[in-house]
Amino acid sequence: MSSHKSEVRNEAWSELLKVAKPDSRFHYNFAEFIADFDGSDRATAMFLEHSVFKSADPIFITPDNCLEELRYETLLAGKKILMTTYGIRRGFWLLDPQEIDSKFLMYASTLDGMEKFGKHLSLRDIQESKLQISAMVTGTGAINMEGVRFGKGHGYFDLEWAMLYSVGAIQTTTAAVAFVHECQLLHQDLKPEVFDTVCDLVITNKRIIELALGKAQKPKVGVVWDLLADGMLEDIPPLQELKQMKITI
């Protein structure tokens, strides 16, 4: 299955290269980052008018390049954002626009600014505060018409989902939303893994594809420790924290 995933992912990336915006650190190495793309501003504008966005607060948004404008618009709308650092290595951060000077909201929505203006939350903090995330938004490398994603290959969003699910911050009915360019849409029939978070909404530069809101397959097992890639537990402190918490799903 992993070799098939790589083949599908590489096919989508070859098309994405035509519309992607390079990253200052990673150029066009899509194995290292989720790229911004031509028309992501239109995707953002469409999602801002959707009921999922309008009712979501706080909202989890990944640190992907294609979501930077969405993060800014979310703060501008007065909504809190929970997000992670690159690779989840420094964990979860909560951005509260009520605590940020409006002139810094754009900077706060970036990877460089989020830690300056956000508040670090451990998984125990999230659990004890009973934080409830209304929607989870991610970029991805490719996605099919049933909402099965293929990201960079690291599985970060699935880990974020699993960790937040484990501490009660989300449920299987929480909406999962993916932002992609039309060229990243796949038409293959793909079977999700047990740990895959299938998306309910797919937002492209041209349209919103609504699947079964709140009914797409979501993992009910938390982190599948035996299936973590080598070195992932050692590299991601929140995973270490969760393991020490010994939560039983």
TrEMBL record:
Cross-referenced InterPro entries, in alphabetical order?
FTHF_cligase (IPR002698), FTHF_cligase-like_sf (IPR024185), NagB/RpiA_transferase-like (IPR037171)
GO CC, sorted alphabetically, is: cytoplasm
Entry-linked Pfam families: 5-FTHF_cyc-lig
**Which SUPFAM superfamilies does this one have?**
NagB/RpiA/CoA transferase-like (SSF100950)
Q: What is this protein called?
A: 5-formyltetrahydrofolate cyclo-ligase
Species source reads Kuraishia capsulata CBS 1993
Q: What is the lineage of its organism?
A: Eukaryota, Fungi, Dikarya, Ascomycota, Saccharomycotina
